[in-house]
Structure formats: structure tokens, C-alpha cells
Amino acid sequence: MLKVENVKKAFGAATVLDGVNLTVSPGEVVSILGSSGSGKSTLIRCINGLEKLNGGRIAIDDFDVAKPKELAEARKRSATVFQLFNLYPHMTTLQNIALAPVEVLKRPRAEVEQEARALLASVGLSDKVDAYPAHLSGGQRQRVGICRALAMKPRYLLLDEVTSALDPEMTAEVLAILAKLAREGTTMLFVTHEVEFARQISNRIVFLDKGVLLVDLPTEEFFAASGGLAQPRIAQFLSKMKKD
């Protein structure tokens, strides 16, 4: 289980997360919605240990990410897909995917590369095994990023605005892969502006506003007039997203 307990994060005088509580159980797909600057991406960076907390606690399967020795174990159980791909430009797709399982998990290279090829095949990139990131489209690079995360066999997949840098066609490619993972029972915490997609794949919707978690509701309740839509700030956000 992934637990976020009363988490606080500030950059200087600016409070970015203010007492956030969140639990994600195995098999759940939880989408985090909110306007730009609401703290969504910062929360993901806190969960994977890239940002230090100013208060509260985050644990992945009871491993505290604030403790260096436990963070290493927590990171073996989770993997992050970033919005700007973060692939190593001097490595092929196969090398990018195989690097962490070999170096971090100390798994045999031959076994890892076999699995990496299977992952690439599952996202329609069998012919890109030896391609470098510069020779891939944005959608292809993001699919490689997803494969790289899955190669670690994570219990929790953290996704941070993975379609924000893509055009509509490439966005559709990536969302199709994520929908497939959701159907297969992959546990995901998904930061996104793709409201309708979040509605389709999520068990729950979390809404952040100015660092405060306003609601954490089952998806149907979030989009119901008696649930999330009953809150003026959420109704305003969804109305604006429909216009955009």
C-alpha cells in the first residue's frame, strides 16, 4: 500500500502541499486532477523521493521514503514515468529499458533484455529495439518510458502528466497503452489534465487545489452533482477543461 500522511512541502515561503493525505491500494487506478500549480507533480516527486518533505510521512509498502536506506527499497516497488521522457540520448531503446533492472535489481542482462523486447512488442515498437531517442517520435519515446518503468516490475506506477508534451495523435497512442495497463490491473497514480480519460480508467479521483486535497472520491461520485461537482471549485475546473 502507498500511504501519504499529512504531507507538507514548501519552496521558500510558498506552500505547495498542505497536509495532504492519500492512500493507494494494490490494483487501484487513482487520478490526480487540479489546475497548474496545484501541487500535483510535486506530490509525485515527493512520493518517489525526489523532493524532501517539510512535514508528514510517505511510505511505500511500509518503507519510509524520507529514510535513505528505506528509500532504496521503496523505489524497487515503484516506478515513475515523467512528462519529458528523460531517456538517455546515447543509449538505444533496449539499453534504456534494461539499464535499471540490471544495475539496480542486479538481474541477468540476457533475461532483462528478453523481457525488454517483449515489452517493446507489447507497445508496438518491436522494430525500434536498436533506435536512439532522437530517432523516435514523442509518442514513441513516451511508450519507451512506460516500458522502462514496467521493466522494474513495480507494484506502483507513478505517471506525471505523461501526455502534456505530445500532440493529439501521439497522446492517443500513449493513452491506449495506459488503458490497457489499467484493464490488466496495474496499480497507477496518474497526474493528468486528460479529464475524460481519467474518468474512463480511474477507480478514484483526487482533486488538489493550491496544495490542499479538496476531495478524494470514487470516480462516479466525483463527476456527480451530489459529489465533486457540488464543490464550486471543482465545477469551475471541469467547466474550464471542457471549454479548452
Walkthrough of the structure:
- The protein has 244 residues and is α/β, with parallel strands linked by helices.
- It has a single domain, classed as P-loop containing nucleotide triphosphate hydrolases (Rossmann fold, 3-Layer(aba) Sandwich), CATH 3.40.50.300.
- It has 9 helices and 10 strands.
- It has helices at residues 40-47, 68-77, 93-103, 109-122, 138-150, 168-183, 195-201, 219-222, 232-243; strands at residues 2-11, 14-24, 29-33, 55-60, 63-64, 78-81, 156-160, 188-191, 204-209, 212-218.
- The strands form 2 sheets. A 6-stranded mixed sheet has the order 6-7-8-3-9-10, sandwiched between helices.
- β7, α6 and β8 form a beta-alpha-beta unit.
- α5 runs parallel beside α6 (168-183).
- The protein starts with a strand and ends with a helix.
The CATH topology is: Rossmann fold
Q: Look at the structure and name the CATH superfamily.
A: P-loop containing nucleotide triphosphate hydrolases
The largest β sheet comes out as: 6 strands, mixed
| Mean pLDDT across all amino acids | 91
CATH architecture tag: 3-Layer(aba) Sandwich
